[in-house]
Amino acid sequence: MRKLLVALTAFSLAAPSFPTLSVAEGLASSGSTSNRSKLFSSQARLLDGRLSSQYKASTKLQPGTKKVSYGVSTAIPSYRGSYKGVYLEDAKSAARKHGVPTDLFLRLVQQESGWKPHAVSHAGAIGLAQLMPGTARKLRVNPRDPKQNLEGGARYLSQMYRKFGSWRLALAAYNAGPGAVEKHGGVPPYRETRNYVRKILGS
User: Fold this and answer.
1) What is the pLDDT of residues 165-194, one digit of tens each?
2) pLDDT > 90? residue 160
3) CATH code, domain carrying 140
4) Residue 172 confidence (pLDDT)
5) Record's InterPro entries (predicted)?
6) What stretches of the chain show up as alpha helix (H) in DSSP?
7) 76, 168 contact by CB (below 8 A)
8) How far is residue 176's CA from residue 105's CA, in Å, rounded to a whole number?
9) Are 99 and 158 in contact (CB under 8 A)?
10) What is the chain's mean pLDDT, rounded?
C-alpha cells in the first residue's frame, strides 16, 4: 500500500498541468472577439465613406475628366531686362509677398507690358501686369494704380500656381485662363500662349 501511495504521488507530480478556462472567462473571451469584429467593421465603413467623399470631390479621380499634366519642376531663368526704374522694387515686393519667384514675376511684367504702367492690350488688359478688368474686380485692386496692379498680378499668378502646381501651367493660365488649361490638360495649343510661356521661362 505504501508503495502504491508513493507511485500515485509521483504520477501527480510528473503529469503536465493544463490551464482551465471557466465558463465566465470563455464568454468574456467570445464577447471580446465579437466586439473587436464589430469595431473593425465600423472603422472599415467609416474609411470607405471618407474615401468615397474624397473621390467625389476630386476632378482628377472622376471618370471622363481630362487629367492635367503637371510635368517636371521648372527652373526659373534670371531676369536680365534693362528696366531699372521705380516699379522694379514694387514688383519684387509683390512677388515676395505672394510666394512667386522674383525673377519669374519680373520676366512676366517685362513680357506683359514692357514696364509701361498705362499699357492697354487689344483685349482690354490694363497696366504693368496686364490685368483684365474682371480679374482686377475679383482681386479687389485698381488696375490703373501701378502698385495695386503689380499686387494683383502677383496674387493671381500665385493662385494659378496653387491651382495647377506648376509655374509653367500657372503662366499658361495667366495668359489664356485656367479654363483653357483644364480643357486641354496642360498648356493650351495656342501659338500666343505657347510663345508667352517659352519667352518667360526660356524654354
Assistant:
1) 999 999 999 999 999 999 999 999 999 999
2) yes
3) 1.10.530.10
4) 99
5) Lysozyme-like_dom_sf, Transglycosylase_SLT_dom_1
6) 2-14, 23-57, 87-97, 102-113, 133-139, 146-164, 167-176, 178-184, 191-201
7) no
8) 17
9) yes
10) 79
Q: How many domains does the chain have?
A: 2
- Say if 5 falls within a structural domain: no
How far apart, in whole angstroms, are the C-alpha atoms of residue 125 and residue 32? 70
Is residue 156 domain-resident? yes
Structural domain contains residue 7: no
For residues 57 and 114, state if they share a domain.
no
Question: Please, what's the b/e burial string for 45-63 (b: 16 or more CB within 10 A of its CB; e: otherwise)?
Answer: eeeeeeeeeeeeeeeeeee
- Which residues, other chains included, contact 62 with Cβ-Cβ below 8 Å and sequence gap of 6+? 55, 56
Q: Per the domain annotation, does 13 fall within a domain?
A: no
Asked if the model's pLDDT at residue 80 lies above 50, the reply is yes
| Axis crossing angle, helix 167-176 with helix 191-201, rounded to the nearest 10 | 140
Catalytic residue IDs: 112
Q: What is the DSSP letter of 12?
A: H
Residue recorded with cell 465600423: 42
Residues 46 and 96 both lie in one domain: no
Per-residue pLDDT tens digits for 86-129:
999 999 999 999 999 999 999 999 999 999 999 999 999 999 99
3-state secondary structure of 41: helix
